[in-house]
Amino acid sequence: MNLHLKEVLETERTILKNLFSLYLHDLSSFTSNIDIGEDGSFEYDGIDEFWETEGLSPYFIISEKDIIGFILLVERPFLKKDYDFGVNDLFVLNKYKGNGFGRQAIVELFKVKKGKYFVIELVENSPAVSFWKKIYCEMNIQFEERQDVVDDDHCFIQTFIIG
Asked: Which of 50, 58, 85, 154 could pair with 123 in a Cys bridge, judged by C-beta atoms 3.0 to 4.6 Å apart?
């Protein structure tokens, strides 16, 4: 399984936009705050900000030569204090889920991005909550967890350090 992360170029915006629509469709199962647009797609309005705002860093997850998902990493200077990084969004296409690709993508990320992290999952998104708990266990990551309301949704927020 040859997997790597590749920073998304601005010229690849349409690919990321299409993947983001699939991600939001999946996420809509766990929140009432995501609705389908008039054009029949789930659209993230802030996609242009990824190339306009320093510290919003999208990466494609690539297996062999195929794009199979993405990670949206938030980092400094977008993050002002307390944390170096946040895994804001992690998406793997359904076809590839359950095969360790998400885990391997996170391992690759942690190899090159060391520091203090936060991860936020919707409380209702049990697959994501289980995924992250398994990552922490398998990688022996000590984390702290709290619950809070983020954008009107109940969320788990985990913090940890990758050294």
From this structure: 154
Q: Identify the pLDDT of residue 1.
A: 66
Phi-psi category of residue 63: left, alpha or beta, with phi > 0 → left and psi -120 to 50 → alpha: beta
| CATH homologous superfamily, domain 3-162 | Gcn5-related N-acetyltransferase (GNAT) (3.40.630.30)
| pTM for this predicted structure | 0.93
Q: Residue 157 and residue 116: Cα distance in Å, rounded?
A: 13
What integer pLDDT is reported at residue 46 of this predicted model?
Answer: 81
The answer to whether 122 and 27 are in contact (CB under 8 A) is yes
HEC readout, the chain: CCEEEEECCHHHHHHHHHHHHHHHHHHCCCCCCCCCCCCCCCCCCCCCHHHHCCCEEEEEEEECCEEEEEEEEEECCCCCCCCCEEEEEEEECHHHCCCCHHHHHHHHHHHHCCEEEEEEEECCCHHHHHHHHHHHHHCCCCEEEEEEEECCEEEEEEEEEEC
Does residue 70 surpass a pLDDT of 80? yes
Question: Rounded to whole angstroms, what are the CA distances from 127 to 27, 71, 94?
Answer: 11, 16, 12
Give percent of the chain above pLDDT 70: 99
